[in-house]
Design goal:
By secondary structure, this protein is an alpha+beta fold. The protein has twelve helices and eleven strands. It starts with 9 loop residues before the first strand and ends with a helix.
């Protein structure tokens, strides 16, 4: 979000503090708080709409009442979510990391809670579903159950102790995950730190991906700093690198298709909330070199105002997945994608299928513990599943993944 330029006509010191007077005689905000200017338009509107203050006659003091708590219930702000959260989150992300105060950083935690309480069909991910008489078993260890209870208490989503969990022995061979967590060399770490921690803003293009024509400037790469929100350019370029990785080593990685961040928004537009014609030409065989019917998994990034989620169409297993690192569900997204894959196969392959028999699978996924790592979680969901691996990472790995993603983008090669 662009910031309003701070223009001033005169300035002077008052009581040891700097006071800046604007061109129209109004006092502007102190330095470091310019990200709050976005709220001025509707904040003043609400303030001016309040009734004028009238003096009241003095009345006898009422009997003392219990003191009300000064803690504001976050749920009271949910009605303002469509526009307040968008501006509030954008303000926090746009401020340079070195100048951010603790109150701004804590806002990410507060908004994580707000999004969890207002996401789709609920925030609790510890659940057991029954579908057509078949029970889906959640594979959780005893330590994971205790962690879920602790998270439930922390986020205020209720007591999960009454939910029955069944442990399933893991007989699958242990995967060698050392490559996925290989540390950066001293040279790589130095190069990434120099670009991410630079002091001056730069519009200079540092990476150009010619096949997709995606340009990455230093400013755009800064979203990979700690507490940064990933932008479209960085996400889409990384998805292009995953596609090229699979083409280089087809026997090592699954046959997947990676839609960019604009696909679902385009598909879910129109008067009815669904417009296949607007994305029909995105997947022509001449453009892709293959058909979606030949893929094992199809990844669709979903952006929900201020939060990244991931939807997956598993063509091989005939299932749908919705992965939200805040634990939410959204069956509406999956209904749109079920309709899309029917139209797509009919249009490109002249095959009619009925997705009503396809299952929606809920699996255990790692959760984020803040309000800014959703984009990074989404990319690693795609990375691990495109390898055919389980999601064996957690919040503590996000700082490393940010550095690794920056390195891979600079090299234009996903490992």
């Amino acid at each position: 979000m662009s910031r309003a330029p701070a223009t001033s006509a005169a300035s002077h010191r008052r009581r040891g503090k700097r006071r800046i007077v604007g061109a129209h005689g109004t006092e502007s905000l102190p330095r470091g708080r310019s990200h709050l200017l976005a709220f001025r338009s509707f904040t003043l509107r609400f303030a001016l709409a309040a009734p004028p203050h009238r003096r009241r006659k003095r009345r006898p003091a009422p009997s003392p009442r219990p003191r009300r708590s000064s803690v504001v219930d976050p749920s009271r702000f949910l009605a303002l979510r469509p526009f307040v959260l968008r501006y509030l989150l954008a303000a926090g992300a746009s401020a340079p990391c070195r100048r951010r105060k603790a109150s701004v950083i804590d806002m990410g935690h507060l908004l994580s809670r707000l999004l969890r309480e207002s996401t789709g069909e609920g925030g609790s991910r510890v659940r057991k579903r029954r579908d057509k008489g078949l029970r889906e078993v959640i594979d959780l260890t005893a330590n994971r159950v205790q962690a879920d209870k602790a998270n439930a208490a922390r986020w205020g989503i209720g007591d999960v102790s009454s939910i029955t969990l069944e442990e399933v022995p893991d007989d699958s061979p242990k995967e060698d995950l050392s490559e996925l967590f290989a540390p950066l060399t001293n040279e790589e770490e130095s190069e990434v730190n120099n670009l991410l921690n630079g002091s001056a803003h730069s519009k200079k293009i540092i990476v150009l991906h010619k096949p997709s024509n995606i340009e990455i400037t230093k400013e755009k790469l800064w979203c990979l700093r700690p507490r940064g929100w990933l932008n479209n350019e960085v996400i889409n370029l990384y998805l292009e690198l995953l596609k090229e990785r699979a083409e280089r080593e087809p026997k090592r990685f699954l046959k997947c298709h990676f839609f960019n961040t604009f696909f679902y928004t385009k598909l879910a537009c129109g008067k009815t909330g669904y417009d296949y014609q607007s994305v029909r030409r995105w997947t022509t065989p001449n453009k892709l070199g293959y058909r979606l019917a030949d893929c094992e998994k199809i990844f669709i990034p979903v952006h929900r105002d201020v939060h990244w989620c991931l939807a997956i169409i598993d063509m091989k297993e005939e299932t749908f997945h919705y992965l939200d690192s805040l634990g939410g569900k959204d069956s509406g997204v999956l209904r749109i994608l079920a309709r899309y894959i029917m139209d797509e196969l009919k249009d490109k392959n002249n095959i009619e299928i009925d997705t009503s028999s396809w299952r929606v699978v809920s699996v255990h996924i790692p959760l984020q513990h803040n309000g800014w790592d959703c984009g990074m979680f989404m990319l690693k969901f795609i990375d691990f599943y495109s390898r055919g691996l389980i999601l064996s990472f957690s919040q503590e790995h996000m700082e490393y993944f940010r550095m690794r993603t920056a390195k891979e983008i600079l090299r234009l090669r996903a490992d």
